[in-house]
């Protein structure tokens, strides 16, 4: 197939694209290199992919409606994996309009491109943050997710309902994926694994929010990528028997489906830090901080619907995944 992957200079996209190329698909990746974090890392990810047969990279901003429409018309993609977004809960408190541009307008241009060119299936990244004020854990897709507590989460919830409207109006098959705290090689510098590793090796203090009492469903990026690529073959179908009054919120009478992708075993943040200390053979200098606005105290995923669909849910133990990250980090930064 010919597959478009947006956010191709990003962390998750690199692993997804590698798997697509391994399966012999043609992949066009696009990214606009937003300087949210160090561009050298984004450039290195693209350079890592550009030697692969079947991969072509385009620098393009999804808010450029004319350029995106022209790309879809020229290429006629079979499927689209939409991973581009402005990430980060805390950054959304500082730069809210960046989220409206990238996550709302950018998502709409992708929906329009898929609609007008007959794309067979759109897979897009949502987030566990949509569960917001939900207290019952593990989070499952049958729960309501109407009360996000950050603008980032609100834009991800908006992506889900925008996608549903296109599935309903135009019959566009759409699968949304709620990712849970992804980590692993080529990760993002703004995320805990990367920040903690960098600080421990440099002897710098680590700010630990929630006084270390948070629990996170840390999910290895390889498990995410395996699930995303496997879902290409599971195109949602309309279910005429479904009703809004009695039906699963993650399904629809339209060709629309939402899944969690997580580890399923939340890890106390302090256990996560202690594991990193062992792998790095260094002690962390911890500075305890209160929970920040927009943060959840716990994330935990129910992945049973995904496991039922795929036959299994990929699972990498946290210690194994962290060891792979540390090996990559030491090799990439030569420390």
Gyration radius over CA: 19 Å
State the share of residues found in helices, binned by percent.
25-40%
Tell me about the largest β-sheet. Answer: 7 strands, parallel
Low-confidence stretches: none
Overall pLDDT score: 95
The strands making up the biggest β-sheet line up spatially as 3-2-1-4-5-6-11
Q: Label the structural class.
A: alpha/beta
Distance between the termini: 40 Å
Describe what you observe in this structure.
This protein is α/β, with parallel strands linked by helices and about 325 residues long. Helices cover about 40% and strands about 15% of the residues. The chain contains ten helices and 13 strands. It has helices at about 10-20, 40-50, 65-75, 95-115, 150-170, 190-200, 220-230, 270-280, 305-310, 320-335, and strands at about 1-5, 25-30, 55-60, 80, 120-125, 175-180, 180-185, 205-210, 215, 220, 255-260, 265-270, 285-290. The chain has a seven-stranded parallel sheet with strand order 3-2-1-4-5-6-11, with helices on both faces. A two-stranded parallel ribbon has the order 7-10. Helix 5 links the parallel strand 5 (about 120-125) and strand 6 (about 175-180). It starts with a strand and ends with a helix. The mean pLDDT is about 95.
Defining traits:
335 residues; alpha/beta; 7-stranded parallel β-sheet; two-stranded parallel ribbon; 16% strand; globular
């Amino acid at each position: 197939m010919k597959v478009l992957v947006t956010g191709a200079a990003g962390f998750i996209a690199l692993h997804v694209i590698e798997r697509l190329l391994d399966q012999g698909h043609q992949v066009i990746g696009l990214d606009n290199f937003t300087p949210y974090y160090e561009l050298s890392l984004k450039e290195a990810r693209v350079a890592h992919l550009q030697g692969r047969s079947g991969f072509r990279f385009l620098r393009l901003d999804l808010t450029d409606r004319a350029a995106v429409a022209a790309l879809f018309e020229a290429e006629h993609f079979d499927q689209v994996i939409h991973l581009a977004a402005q990430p980060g809960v805390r950054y959304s408190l500082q730069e809210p309009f960046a989220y409206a541009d990238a996550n709302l307008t950018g998502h709409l241009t992708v929906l329009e491109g898929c609609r007008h060119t007959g794309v067979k299936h759109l897979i897009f990244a949502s987030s566990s943050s949509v569960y917001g004020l939900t207290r019952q854990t593990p989070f499952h897709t049958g729960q309501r997710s109407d009360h996000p507590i950050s603008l980032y989460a609100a834009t991800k919830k908006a992506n889900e309902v925008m996608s549903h409207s296109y599935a309903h109006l135009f019959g566009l098959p759409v699968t949304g994926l709620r990712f849970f705290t992804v980590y692993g090689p080529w990760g993002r510098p703004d995320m805990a694994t990367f920040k903690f590793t960098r600080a421990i090796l440099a002897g710098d203090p680590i700010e630990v929010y929630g006084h270390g009492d948070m629990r996170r469903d840390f999910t290895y990026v390889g498990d995410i990528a395996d699930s995303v690529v496997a879902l290409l073959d599971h195109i949602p179908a309309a279910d005429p028997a479904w009703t809004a009054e009695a039906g699963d919120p993650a399904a629809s009478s339209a060709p629309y489906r939402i899944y969690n992708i997580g580890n399923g075993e939340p890890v106390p943040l302090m256990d996560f830090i202690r594991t990193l200390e062992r792998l790095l053979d260094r002690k962390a200098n911890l500075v305890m901080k209160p929970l920040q606005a927009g943060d959840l105290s716990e994330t935990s995923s129910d992945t049973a619907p995904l496991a039922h669909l795929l036959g299994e849910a990929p699972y990498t133990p946290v210690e194994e995944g962290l060891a792979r990250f540390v090996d990559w980090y030491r090799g990439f930064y030569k420390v």
